[in-house]
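User: Show me a protein chain along with its predicted structure.
Assistant: Here is one chain, sequence first, then structure tokens.
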Amino acid sequence: MNAESDARPERERSEQVSALTPAAHLFQSFSDPSRLVILQHLQLGEHRVVDLTQHLGLSQSTVSKHLASLKDAGLVSSRPEGRASVYSLRHTEQLLGLFAAAERLLELTGDIVQLCPVHGTAVVSSADQD
């Protein structure tokens, strides 16, 4: 084998990883339970940061950080209203479809997901305490 044929599988793998990077970033947006709760609240309509902090019992900085992450992922948008920003869902229909699909998948794998040593509820609970 020559060097070019040896490099081909590595280049193909690198291209595959690059092609999947946007999907990985999207799914990472759903990896924090607080972000999921924020998305649930935004399904009800527009919210200001102060509204979300009151509903969720999280600090303003935490809510702002999560909203920035969701905005960077293209899942929420904001518009100025006075001195505040009002946040809303983008691509609402598709997002609701994704949540419905996730619920169906969790019905099939729920016990397995909850018991997963890496991502189970005990791990999430201990991470929330940090």
